[in-house]
Amino acid sequence: MGHQDVKFYQTGTFTVGNRLLPPEQRSVQSEIERTNSLNCGHRACQGCGEALGARYAIDAAMRATNNQLVAVNATGCLEVFSTPYPETSWQIPWIHSLFGNAAAVATGVAAAAKVRARKAGQQLPEVRVIAQGGDGGTTDIGFGCLSGMFERNDDVLYICYDNQAYMNTGVQRSSATPPAARTATTMPVGEHPGNDWGQGKNVPLIAMAHGIPYVATASVSDLRDLEYKVKKAMSMRGARYIHIFVPCPLGWGSASHDTIKLARLAKETGLFPVFEAEYGEVTNVSKIRQKQPVEAYLRLQRRFAHLFGKKPQVELIARFQAMADQNIHKFGLLGNDKAVVGFPDSEHK
Amino acid sequence: MLKQCEGSHAVAEAVALSRPEVICAYPISPQTHIVEGLGEMVKAGDIKNCEYINVESEFAAMSVAIGSSAAGARTYTATASQGLLFMVEAVYNASGLGLPIVMTVANRAIGAPINIWNDHSDSMSQRDCGWIQIFAETNQEAADLHIQAFKLAEELSLPVMVCMDGFILTHAYERVDIPTQEQVDKFLPPYSPRQVLDPAAPVSIGAMVGPEAFSEVRYLAHAKQMQALELIPKIASEFQEIFGRDSGGLVRPYMLEDAETVVIALGSVLGTIKDTIDEMRADGISIGVLGINSFRPFPVSAIRRALSHAKRIVVLEKSLAVGIGGIVATDVRMALDGLDKRIYTVVAGLGGRNITRSSLHRVFRMAMHDQLEALHFLDLEWSIVNKELDRERTTRRSGPIAENILRDLGQTKSNVG
Lengths: 349, 417
What we know:
The complex is a heterodimer.
Chain A: H1 49-64, E1 69-73, H2 77-82, E2 94-96, H3 102-119, E3 128-134, H4 135-140, H5 143-152, E4 157-162, H6 203-209, E5 214-219, H7 223-234, E6 240-245, H8 249-252, H9 259-269, E7 275-278, E8 281-285, H10 294-298, H11 314-331
Parallel strand pairs in A: 1-2, 1-3, 3-4, 4-6, 5-6
Antiparallel strand pairs in A: 5-7, 7-8
Chain B: E1 2-6, H1 7-17, E2 22-25, H2 32-43, E3 51-54, H3 58-70, E4 75-79, H4 81-86, H5 88-97, E5 102-107, H6 121-124, E6 132-135, H7 139-156, E7 160-165, E8 173-177, H8 181-187, E9 204-205, H9 214-243, E10 251-254, E11 261-265, H10 269-282, E12 287-292, E13 294-296, H11 300-306, E14 312-317, H12 328-335, E15 342-347, H13 357-368, E16 375-377, H14 382-394, H15 401-416
Parallel strand pairs in B: 2-3, 2-4, 4-5, 5-7, 6-7, 11-12, 11-14, 14-15, 15-16
Antiparallel strand pairs in B: 1-8, 6-13, 10-12
Helix pairs in contact in B: 1-2, 1-7, 3-5, 7-9, 10-13, 11-12, 14-15
C-alpha cells in the first residue's frame, strides 16, 4: 500500500492522520492482523476510556508476544462489561479471580509458565502475563498484592486503568480520586464540597520506588504512545507497571464524545504527567505541546461543577493550577526541563 | 523408608514426592516448618521444576495458587488459624473456580484472644467454603493424605484441605514411613487440568454469572463433593495396594460393632480416646469410637451405618459454634435424623488445652449413665468463669475479659504457691 509523505495535523489535536503515515509507523488499529483481543459486543458505556485503553493495550501486548498472552483481570467495570454469562468478549486466555488479587494471580500464572518453559528445556517462558484492574483494584484494595509482585520482581506487566473512582459500584471515591471531585461518597455539599484536599496516592511514583525495571504512564489521548509503551514493557522481563489515564463519562459527568479531549487536556494542563521510568529513574517524558489552564479541563466535567457556580471557587481552581504547575516542574514537562523526581538505584547504573 | 522425624518434615517430604510445580509460602505457626522444609528442598534442587514463592500475605498465597493452578501447575500451600481467615475470600474463589490446589491447615485456634495452640476452629470456620476437608490422626496419615489429596483434587478438579493438629502433630517427632518416588509416581499421574489458561485454546475463567445459572453452578459444586464420597475410599484402597498401608477413607471405626456408647472425634485426639476405650473395655464397658476422616464431604451414610447399633453418641470436638454448641455434633445429628439415639456434645481442647485420659474417663462414664448435659465443656474452670460473670454484673467498666482472667489465674496460682 502506498502512502503520502506529508505531515497533516488535525486542527487543535496534534494527531497525525494514521492513514498518511508510512506503514511501519501506523498504529495497530489500521492493521488487518489486529487480534481484537477484546472483541465487540461488550457492554461498556459510550465513550468509555477503559474499554478503549484495554483494547489498545492488550492488542499491542498480543503483537509483542506473538499472541502468547494470558490476561488476569481484577473485579471492576472492565471485568463486568466484558464477561456477563454466557458471553465473553475476550479472545485470549483470561481469568478473573477477585477484586484485590490480580497482581498475585498473575504471579501464579507467570510461575506456572516458568515451570512449563523449564520442563520444555527453554530458558525463558514463551507465555507472558498481563494483570489489569481499575484504580480501585490497583491503588486501594489490590495494593498489597501489587507491591508484593513489584518487590519480588515477578515477570508480570500490571496495567492500571485509572478513571479516578469506583465506577462499577456507582462512582465512589478511591485513593486516585482528585481533590474537590464529586463522587457518591464525597458529595458537593457542606463547607468543603467534594473530595478532600491533601489525600491520595501516586502509584506510578510508588511503583518507581520499588526499583522495578519499567514504569510508565499513558493516556487514551495518545494511543500510539500507549502501544509503544506496552510493546516496550513486553520486551522486558520482571515487574512492570503502566498507569493509563481513562476518562469515564458516567462517573465524571462528561460528554461521551469528550473522552479523548479530556484525556488530552489532562496531559496538556500537567495534571496527568505522561512519562517513562526505568529502575526508579525517569527516562522520558511526553512534553506539553501547548499548555492549557486547568479550568479548560475541569469545566467539562460535572463532578467539578460546584467550582464554577454563580460564585466560582477561584481559590480552589488556583490550587488545581498549583498542582499542575508542580507536576510540570517535577517531571520537566515543558521545554528542555529535566525531571527532578526519581529513586536512583546504583545497582542498575 | 522408616524415618524418625517431625510431622512437618514428613508432610514436606510427602509434598515433595508429589512433584509440586508451584509452592507459595507465608509464615504462620504452626505450619512454618512444612514450607521451610519445602523451600530448602526447592533451593537445593531436590524438587525439580518447581517455583517457590515467598508471598506477602496469606491472601496473596492463595491468589498466587489460583493463578498457577489455573495456568496448569500442580500447586501447594500451607496455612493455619489467622492465616486461613486472612485468605478466606480467595479460599472460596479457588473452590468456586474448581482449581485443584492442595493446602495443609495446621489446625490452630482463632483469636481474639490470640492463641497459637491447637484446636479446630480455623478449618471448621471454612466448613462451607467448598473445599474437601480431610483430617489426619497421625503423622503417618498426614504424610499419606497429602499424596492422596493431590490425586483426589485433580480427579475432581476441586481444592483439598489436609487438616492436621498444630504442634500435636506438626511438631511431634515420631516414626513415619516415607514412600519412595517410584511408589508415588505409580500412584499419582502428572496433572492433567480440566481447564487451563492456554494461548493455544483461549478460555475465559471466572466470568460473572447471574441468577439465571448461579444455582446450577453451586449445585455442581455440591455434586462434585458427593462424587468425592465414592472417590475417597477408592483412592484409599488404591493407596493401600501400592503403599501397603491403610490410610484415609471416610470414617475409621474402632471397637464399634457391639458398642452401646460411641465417641465421635477428628484428628490426633483419636489416639487418646482409643487408649481410654481400651482401658474401659478392660473394665467390661461397651464403648467404641468412630473417627471422621472426611469432614467435607460429610459421610452421612457411612456414619449412619456405623452407628446403627449405638445407643448413645458422644461427639467430642475441638471447636465451638458460639451460640449453639457443637459444629461436628450438628452434622452428626443430621446424619442420624429420625433415629432414637442420645447425642452429647463435648467441647474439648480449645486453644491447646490438654485432653487427658482421666477427663475422658469421667466424661464418657457420665454419658454412659446419661448424666451428661447435652452440651458439656470439658474441664471448664467454673470459678474463673463465674468470677468474670460476677464482675460484669457488678461493674460497668469491667475491662478486657482475657486480661481479667489472666489476672485471676495469676492470683489463683500465687495463692496456691
